[in-house]
Amino acid sequence: MDVRNDMLKRVKNRREGYSLDQAFYTDPEYFRLDLDLIWYRDWLFVGHDCEVARAGSFFTVQVGDYPVVILRDSDGQIRAFHNSCRHRGSRVCTEHRGSSARLVCPYHQWTYDLDGSLLYARQMAEDFDKSQFSLKPVACESVAGYIFICLAEKPAEFAPFAQLMQPYFAPHRLTEAKVAFESTIIEKGNWKLVWENNRECYHCAGNHPELCKTYPEAPTVTGVAGGDEDPDLTEHWTRLEAGGLPSRFRMHESGQFRACRTPLIGDAVSYTISGRPAVQERLSAEVSQERIGALLLFHYPTTWNHVLGDHAVTFRVLPISATETAVTTKWLVNKDAVEGVDYDLDTLTHVWMQTNDQDRRIVEENAFGIKSPAYEPGPYSELHEGGVMQFVDWYCRSVETRLTEGGKSLR
Ligand code: 3BY
Ligand code: FES
Ligand code: FE
User: Which residues fall in a coiled-coil region (predicted)?
Assistant: First the structure.
């Protein structure tokens, strides 16, 4: 049967509150459809403004079959382009990151300006019209230090996300921060397993001894029920909002993103074993309140985040294949904080390096078991896995809508 119909049938007939059929986690054809229906359609978090601090700074990213370069142009604007030369298609930027006044293709040195226009093409015909061969732009937006791209021809509105997250994040001044450390791990599991694992803390007590010293495992914190019934949360929100920090749980009606502040356990203020700050300098001079806990944000399908008083930890998910996912973690600190003086890198990164490795093993074991012919979808815990159900519902709703809205080529 046609794989689109097959996926549509499975999404329609799925048992709600249960994990998905095996094909969603293992089948390369389903993975192609995930790329077409989700990854080539939705806004994707790629990196931070502070990673392209100066004109000519760039970084590259690979989304499915699309290589993309993100840079800051001479006017200070952040832009994204398809990283495919308009001559014969070579990748123009071959490094993960760098800085360059112009983009020079390594193949025959066609040379592009930072606004994507073709400046030089050696020894082409006299009537060659350079203006027809600019790098192709990719939709690119940034909000409160987060850069997003969208590969769709007609991107969905970015404003609803910017409006929701900006008031929560702007005070933390991530635009002015610096990346103290970055780690990328490849998890041998489908991208949806990475998300399902992230969206619950049912597994935390048994797997994350370091994180559990400071991050509360209460389902009201990681879940999406809103937390209004949890007095720890509501007191935290009331105190912080009285001091001007938006904190209450907010989720967009689409279910694609939510922001919320959570208190940490006891007196903890940071994700360290002791709970004490990992960085002496506050992340933002604008946030002077004590014990702000963690600002949590997710935006499907690429990012979850924790912003603390002394640093931020940001995560980026990118799919590699049906059974491999890249997870990039960045630790952001005040740009004036000095390694070895204001912070010790190992103390800063220890808890999440351990947690990520623990989550990688969890995801890989999950993927292993799902490959068994004996696997069948199993029930989520209503108490602990409401967030997982919400993610799976968002995914199923997205693919069902996009599979049924006509046309063979949906892009
Ligand atoms: O990383 C997260 O956001 C979630 C919550 C804590 C650990 N993990 C379950
Ligand atoms: Fe880029 Fe030839 S492919 S210059
Ligand atoms: Fe985990």
Answer: none
What's the CA-to-centroid distance between 388 and ligand 3, angstroms? 13
Cβ pair 167, 149 in contact under 8 A: no
Count of beta carbons in the 10 Å neighbourhood of residue 265:
15
Picking from 322, 411, 365, the residue whose alpha carbon sits closest to that of residue 203 is 365
Q: What is the pLDDT of residues 133-167, one digit of tens each?
A: 999 999 999 999 999 999 999 999 999 999 999 99
* Sheet with 111-112: strands ordered across: 103-104, 111-112, 118-120
* Per-residue model confidence as pLDDT tens digits over 312-366: 999 999 999 999 999 999 999 999 999 999 999 999 999 999 999 999 999 999 9
- Ligand of minimum distance to the alpha carbon of 212: 1
d(CA 305, CA 314): 5
52 within 8 A of 86, measured Cβ to Cβ: no
Ligand 2: which residue has its CA nearest to atom 3? Answer: 88
* pLDDT for residue 365: 98
Tokens of 346: 């190992």
Task: Judge whether residue 411 has pLDDT over 50.
Answer: no
Q: Whose CA is nearest to atom 2 of ligand 2?
A: 108
Ligand closest in space to the Cα of 109 = 2
- Please give the domain boundaries of the chain with CATH numbers for all domains: 48-155 (2.102.10.10), 163-371 (3.90.380.10)
| Residues less than 5 Å from ion ligand 3, measured at CB | 359
